[in-house]
TrEMBL record:
Keyword annotations from UniProtKB, A to Z: 4Fe-4S, Electron transport, Iron, Iron-sulfur, Metal-binding, Repeat, Transport
Signal peptide: none
Record carries keyword Metal-binding: yes
Superkingdom of the organism of origin: Bacteria
InterPro entries given in the database record: 4Fe4S_Fe-S-bd, 4Fe4S_Fe_S_CS, FTHF_cligase-like_sf, Helical_ferredxn, LUD_dom, LutB/LldF, LutB_C, NagB/RpiA_transferase-like
Keyword presence, Metal-binding: yes
Protein's UniProt name: LutB/LldF family L-lactate oxidation iron-sulfur protein
Domain 4Fe-4S ferredoxin-type: residue ranges: 301-331
Species, as recorded: Neptunomonas phycophila
SUPFAM superfamilies assigned to the protein according to its UniProt record, in alphabetical order: alpha-helical ferredoxin, NagB/RpiA/CoA transferase-like
Amino acid sequence: MQINSPHFKESAKIALHDVGLQKALGNLKAGFPTKRAAAVARLPEFDQLRDEAAALKNHIIENLDIYLEEFEANVLKNGGHVHWCRTADDACKTVLDICKEVDAKTVTKGKSMVTEEINLNDFLEKNGIEPVETDLGEYILQLRGDHPSHIIAPAIHLNLEDVSDIFHEKHKRPKSDDPAVLMQEAREMLRKKFVAADVGITGANFCVAETGSTLIVTNEGNGDLTQTLPKTHIVVTSIEKVVPTLEDMTLFLRLLARSATGQEFSVYNTLSTGPKRAEDQDGPENFHVVLVDNGRSDMVGGELQDMLRCIRCSACMNHCPVYGAVGGHSYGWVYPGPMGSVLTPQMIGIEQAGLLPNASTFCGKCESVCPVRIPLPKLMRHWRENEFSKHLSPKAVRWGLGSWAFFAKRPRLYRWLSRAANKSMRLLGRQNGKISKLPMASGWTQFRDMPAPANRTFMDLYKTPKASEKSS
């Protein structure tokens, strides 16, 4: 996937004027947040589970090497193979080598954001192997030559007419606007691919150390067909997905579906434990797990370690006012929204992704809904500080902060200017209490009015009770 993060501002402006996109984003705002709230309300212990999950994730990260080695040992014990890949290139080459071993020409894929992260599809195509996305949203995007804009609802930026148009063009069938007809079309097209595939590639929501199992969570069942019909099953996942036990896995499952789609539980929760055994009627003959690092081990023990708790539920982006206004493609890479604003600079560099952690109102909604309590605003501030320290911030930003620092270090001058600015802004908003135009703040007042300030500054108000306390 091409990196367009440096063009976030331009992409966001286009997104704000895209009528079709804004219609689709309206469906998002009315969907996931409402369903999540209802699901959480039905589970009184939800916040207690969040605390337990955050603590467990911290324990796992602190002992990541131990649990990964235990996971590897049990995968090998079950007859599978584990491949350790430090970079995206290593992971792509490993998958290609496995495909070549079985002379694969076609692979089916269950939805995996890690394969998007390493750009696996393009790599396989360049090497003569056809990847076929089987998640309905991913399948639609593949037909369009498009990329996901959301981590659990990849085609959420599209409307029904968009799907109808691409199916009519690619399937060569009569055009229909009936979702049931379109779904049946997709089933018929994909069924042939499922049967013909030489290799099935899936992601993993969790890797269980005690059993050497991987688990995928879907609502369509395509993941089951992807991993059981082909002779070879490859799991491409990242190192922080490991959990100690099956019981620990169930803790996260109770949080995942509620946070993601507002369901009590996802429809399909499927464990894979090695290749098929002699007594099994079906299943893959070969089982491979490709563990991808791609910068994650560098986060352990650092200021970004909390981000490794992420279980990819998408709650942060579902509730983010910025994502809700501009959509996922504006972020310019695989991971959008608040979680992407933290992960993307780590993976492609703050030099290319510096605009993302700045694309936040810091309203705190993302942290308040995170099922594992990741302090996303704090982590975005880390990247802002990092960008500033490397002199990557725009000159206007650096000049503004420098000017503010000059006055902030001189309290008397700062308070005098605050009072002067307060009076000036009150004059501008004297008619209706709102300021429609403000010098040096057109980026704000171009789209909304700014409330005129109160009669007194905070410091003046702060002094008032202190003075009355002394007199009493």
